[in-house]
Please model this.
Amino acid sequence: MANYLSETQRQHHLEESGSLALRRSEIVVDYGLGALREFAQNYEVGCNTGALQALRLHVYRSGVMKDARIVRQDGTVLCSAFPETLEFDREWAARDNTLKILGGSARLFRVEQFFGTALGAMIDVDDQLSLAGVFAVDGSLLDVMPAEIRDNSTVSLQLSNGSDIASTDSSANFALSDRSGHTHIATVPSQRYPLQSYVRVEHGVYEAWNKQAHMPIMILSGLFGALFGILLSRGMYRPRSPLEDLDRAIDQGHIQPWLQPIFDLHTGKIVGAETLARWVKPDGTVIPPARFIELAEETKRIHILTWHLLSAALTALKPLLKADPEFNLSVNISPSHFVSDGFVKQLRETVLAAGVDAWQITLELTERESFEDPDHAAVVVAEVRGYGFKVAIDDVGIGHSGLSQIQRLRADTLKIDKFFIDSVNLDATATSMIAMLVRLAREMNMTVVAEGIEDQQQLKALLACGIARGQGYLVSPPVAVTPFLELVAGQKSAGHNQAAYKAA
Ligand code: C2E
Ligand code: CA
Ligand code: CA
Model:
């Protein structure tokens, strides 16, 4: 049984890692294709000097493209935005070797260059010419494995026909390395593009990591298992299920809204807060949301839990919200709850009962799960915005849905996931993705919040990208209501000491 469990967990971990790498790559393709289409619609596609100069500028601005080329429909290259890169080509795909994107006319293919491979995409401009882009998908985008097993694992992006595009294995010959031996493998196909991610972890290493993480639990559960068995057989003991525990915790008010400041990146001033759930046990143990939100969502307890958290946060912050009409309170709303019957009515009633104005409340909708019916979700977004509430799209950059959903939902704010912030000074792809999101937000009249800012270097880089709002341990982790109010009051009484906050 223990063996079965650890194998299932391992497979789950492999697939989760593969799917994260895949989602990041899909976002690059979303942006890259968007940039190609935008160019084809607005500019002349041709090989004359002016047209190529416009193309160069477009490639530079897009951030995700390394190069763009004008090709004949059979795949022959006519010219390149950066002609010198043509010398890097080992081979350029003929049309037959390209893979069509489902439900569209664009195609993806592998670009073989002397220093490695890259992902190519192509859209038809007319019945003669196509515009192709070479996209920046590289190993750092696929760096999703925990540090303990990173060196003994490989994450690759492949076309759906199995040919490699990029890999974390920098030995450049990853395509040749042994994939049949004693390894754990997962392949995760994309729903949107002819792409898949491929994850491989060497046998012993994964086991050792697994053992480290699970062994004490397995030994303990073995011991307790025997004890429970004896008690059960005597009919004396029935352990409470996790759901019963959760219900009790909700009833007894043990799940509380903690708050994390959202601050102005230029000055450090706290301009709002995000409500984050914490289960505080009577002995003071604090349980993070990762341990109970999923169960609450699966069992629909998330509805009652969300209303409880919102009411409690509103009550606690009402004086602050009244004193400072600019102050904004964010709450996380599960997508399934957001589109459920009666959500909007209950939202209005809860906020009205607290005597707080709708525009001081932001609903955060995660992009991690996609809406079953995106059109309906967009209608609900429009409805709540019609009542004055703000809507933020959370975890942007790691979601399933990609750009089109973001554009369709028409929210007020984009929250850029911590993953990109972590890599902002380490990885050019992360920085260019952030720059793209900022541009997209500007075009759509949205504000941007950067999540998980931990140090001054990240802060500086984000300011340079034009981001004005953020959240992260740099200012404060999520804290209980009282310390949060003290933090805000402290800032006020110090006349908001900018010297302590060294953004400049
Ligand atoms: P989220 O909405 O993306 O929240 C941001 C998470 O990043 C929080 O984790 C926060 O503590 C963490 N974080 C913020 N700044 C930093 C930083 O500088 N460094 C690091 N390492 N972490 C930082 P938390 O509180 O554990 O929440 C995890 C997730 O649980 C949330 O992610 C959200 O998706 C979910 N969640 C939390 N409360 C609720 C809730 O009331 N309802 C729903 N539906 N989901 C919730
Ligand atoms: Ca959130
Ligand atoms: Ca988030």
